[in-house]
Design goal:
The complex is a heterodimer.
Chain A (H helix, E strand, L loop, with lengths): L1 H9 L5 H33 L5 E5 L13 H8 L6 E14 L8 E8 L15 E5 L12 E4 L4 E9 L8 E5 L1 H11 L12 E5 L8 H8 L4 E4 L1 H6 L4 H33 L1 H9 L4 H33 L11 H28 L11
Parallel strand pairs in A: 3-7, 4-6
Antiparallel strand pairs in A: 1-8, 1-9, 2-3, 2-5, 2-8, 4-7, 5-6
Helix pairs in contact in A: 1-9, 2-7, 2-9, 2-10, 7-10, 9-10
Chain B lengths: L1 H9 L1 H38 L4 E5 L13 H8 L4 E16 L6 E8 L12 E2 L7 E5 L8 E4 L10 E9 L9 E5 H11 L10 E6 L5 H11 L3 E5 H6 L4 H33 L1 H9 L4 H30 L3 E2 L2 E2 L4 H18 L1 H8 L14
Parallel strand pairs in B: 3-8, 5-7
Antiparallel strand pairs in B: 1-9, 1-10, 2-3, 2-6, 2-9, 4-7, 5-8, 6-7, 11-12
The chains are: A alpha+beta, B alpha+beta.
Chain lengths: 371, 376
């Protein structure tokens, strides 16, 4: 072990190539993870902000908010289901927003939500028609409290009364208004998606923990199969592109870990080949195969840890440096810890390929017995 | 050559393993390339397939059919632009449908057009364009001729009012990776009303336009944009390329390809470096008995070419049947250009990666054969 550490201290250059490659891989891994977390947060913030126990869509909507329609009769049936504590309506419309002082073609894509119930993620909706809370990502677009945004081709005015955090949806900034404001904006701008008074797109259901078992089924039965009730996680996974985005990114991350395994395996195989003679001498002097392999493993772990620390610092620096709302990137502790764990695992697995070589070293080669 | 082949024959397992590893990497690269092409085609195929040389969105639409609404005043301005030979309405929506009374509901994008010359598919693989109400052309990997599609509304299948029959099929005609139908305008309007009985007047999502003879589509798009600040006119290809999401998908795959581009030469280079080190004693001996460095380096390079060539052959052989498959809603295809590009690229990168091993060979000092230390 001490020998391995001494070699690292005395000949750091020997490990330079592996450290550089692993550092690049660590940066790539943490950057990809951060990008995935940022994209997921930007797609799902509006649903997470509901803190809902269940979200109820119409049965034929394929759990898509824009295609879902819930009428007052269905809402009444849901409210009467045993175990339901509160029911709030929600609706959304995606439009272009015009901000004063910007070019005629320079629009900001926004999703205007109408909602009823306050949650941990959202204050109560503004009471005045045409007023809305804005997601704080709009601050990066120069929006301030009191500003007016003209949304959609009908230029419906929406006044920003304050800001909320982490409520983005479909990668776009959001505005949070009353249901009346949403219906007005929706009907003015999207006649094909017009909603009648009292109609919303989905219901946000809260229920005490003790009543949640089987609640989704009870709700769907109570509405005669006209609804599809999902947990918050299920509703997030039903969002277009979220699960495919996660699967593509996880595939890239998996591939990167595989590359790390190959790099460690090949690099330490190379180092082992170079040191075969030395290992012969050490074995002749009484060193066991286990000790020699532990030394190789320790070197791999240290090189990987150095690479991971540099990668983590780079990810944190990147997250701090990017302007809000520009690149969807988040550097979180769990993501950095997870990436480091996978890299260490890759180092251990990669090193294991050198074990056979170390075991095969014959001490007799040290005194010329192998020639 | 003789030396290279003789060594490969003697160490069959080692070289076969490397060839297999490179073959699998080649397969992964080509499969990812096919997925990327298939995904992008499924995302924007319908825009490339529709016949209008120029598509005009509203600026509010952010270059998507789903977000764009053409108001009557904007439509009037667009249609009166000088240089338009033909123009027509194009509408698009995504609906929940039931195909042939299958138990599961599914999604379908429905594209409606008023003039087949500017909105219908430009080519069909089979069948014909709709000429009666209730007929449509469907994307050919999702539908077959004679399929009946019911557009579902809030009341479910029992209250569905719009049924469409597939009378033609078009290749690469999906939108947003969703099975896609091209219908005449009245059927599009009926579909919207069926899905949302509260819908008001149905406005077009875009206007398809064709320029007069002698005017190119790009110039016409420019003229339309000059005519109105609310119009966002693009040529057909630009409309496809600039659809939000296309660039992001391409960038994600570029990262994967960059990783592969790194790993293949890395694996090849380190492999040959290791075996060069392992046989340095023999190489020193060969140098001592008169073998020239150039002969040994040539032998090394022949092995690199054979290993990468073998890997490419294995990878392409495995890719060929895979490229005929369908991945969910995404249709894959054999991409000759991608195969050629990656073959040349990997061969060049592989040869470059072997330079380190070649330098080791060149550094061998024959005199060390007398000391038994080789060329380390």
């Amino acid at each position: 072990m001490r020998l391995a550490l001494k070699e690292l201290r005395r000949r750091p250059g020997r490990f330079g190539v592996a450290t550089v490659i692993l550092t690049l891989i660590a940066i790539l891994l943490m950057f990809l993870g951060g990008l995935l977390d940022g994209l997921t947060a930007g797609n799902t913030g509006a649903i997470r902000a509901q803190q809902a126990d269940l979200i109820v869509f119409s049965a034929t909507s394929q759990d898509s908010l824009v295609r879902s329609r819930i009428d007052p009769e269905q809402r009444r049936k849901v409210e009467q289901v045993d175990g339901v504590k509160t029911v709030g309506e929600i609706g959304s419309v995606q439009l272009g927003g015009r901000i004063e002082g910007r070019g005629l073609r320079d629009l900001v894509p926004v999703v205007l939500f109408g909602y009823q119930a306050a949650s941990k993620g959202l204050p109560a909706p503004p009471t005045s028609l045409g007023e809305a809370w804005a997601d704080d990502s709009l601050e990066a677009e120069g929006i301030e409290q009191g500003d007016m945004i003209l949304v959609g081709p009908a230029r419906s005015p929406v006044k920003v009364t304050g800001f909320v955090s982490d409520t983005r949806y479909a990668g776009q900034s959001t505005l949070w208004a009353s249901l009346e404001t949403w219906r007005k904006v929706q009907n003015e701008n999207r006649p094909d998606a017009r909603v009648a008074p009292g109609v919303s797109q989905a219901l946000v259901v809260q229920a005490p923990a003790a009543n949640q078992a089987g609640l989704a089924t009870r709700i769907d039965e109570a509405t005669g199969g006209n609804t599809s009730s999902l947990t918050e996680d299920e509703a997030i996974n039903a969002l277009p592109g979220v699960s495919s985005q996660q699967s593509v990114f996880n595939q890239i991350i998996g591939l990167t870990v595989l590359i790390a395994i190959i790099v460690v395996a090949l690099f330490f195989a190379l180092i082992t080949v170079e040191r075969i003679g030395l290992y012969g001498v050490l074995k002749a002097l009484g060193a066991g195969s286990g000790t020699l392999f532990a030394g190789v493993l320790l070197q791999a772990v240290i090189v990987t840890l150095i690479a991971s620390v540099i990668g983590a610092l780079a990810a944190l620096a990147f997250a701090a440096a990017i302007p809000a709302g520009s690149i969807p990137f988040i550097a979180t502790g769990p993501r950095i810890a997870g990436s480091t764990f996978f890299l260490l695992l890759a180092a251990v697995i990669g090193c294991a390929f050198s074990l056979r070589r170390v075991l095969k070293v014959d001490p007799a080669t040290a005194i010329g017995g192998g020639q | 050559m003789f030396l290279a082949l003789r060594e490969m024959r003697r160490a069959k397992v080692r070289f076969a393993l490397l060839i297999s590893a490179i073959g699998l990497l080649v397969l992964l690269i080509l499969a990812q390339q096919a997925i990327q092409t298939g995904l992008i085609t499924s995302f924007i195929g319908a825009i490339e397939r529709q016949s209008a040389p120029v598509l005009v969105y509203s600026v509010d639409g952010q270059r998507t059919l789903q977000g764009s609404i053409i108001t009557p005043p904007l439509e009037k301005k667009i249609r009166s632009t000088e240089g338009i030979a033909t123009s027509g309405r194009i509408g698009q929506g995504t609906f929940t449908v039931k195909v042939n009374d299958e138990p599961e509901d599914s999604d379908a994008a429905i594209i409606g057009y008023t003039d087949p010359a500017v909105g219908a598919p430009d080519q069909l693989t089979t069948g014909r364009l709709p000429n009666r109400p209730g007929e449509s052309v469907g994307s050919d990997n999702d539908f077959k001729l004679g399929d009946r599609v019911r557009v579902l509304g809030p009341g479910g299948p029992d209250q569905a009012t719009e049924t469409i029959e597939i009378v033609g099929l078009a290749d690469d005609a999906q939108l947003q990776v969703t099975p896609t139908l091209f219908v005449e305008w009245p059927d599009y309007v009926a579909s919207v009303k069926s899905a949302n009985p509260d819908a008001g007047g149905i406005l077009p999502s875009a206007i398809g336009a064709a320029p007069v003879p002698g005017l190119d589509p790009e110039t016409l798009a420019g003229r339309i944009n000059d005519a109105s600040d609310e119009a966002d006119a693009l040529t057909r290809q630009a409309a496809a390329d600039e659809t939000p999401g296309v660039a992001e998908v391409s960038q994600s795959f570029q990262v994967i390809f960059l990783l592969f581009g790194m790993v293949v030469p890395l694996v090849t280079g380190l492999f040959f470096l290791i075996i060069t080190l392992q046989k340095s004693g023999s190489l020193t001996l060969l140098r001592a008995i008169g073998a020239k460095s150039s002969l040994l380096v040539r032998s090394l390079m022949v092995q690199v070419v054979l290993v990468i060539g073998g890997g490419l052959a294995v990878g392409i052989a495995l890719y060929t049947p895979l490229s005929q498959a369908q991945l969910g809603d995404i249709k894959l295809s054999f991409d000759v250009g991608a195969v050629l590009l990656w073959s040349v690229l990997l061969l060049v990168l592989g040869l470059l990666s072997a330079v380190v091993a070649a330098r080791r060979v060149l550094a061998i000092d024959p005199i060390e054969a007398t000391t038994g230390e080789g060329g380390r």
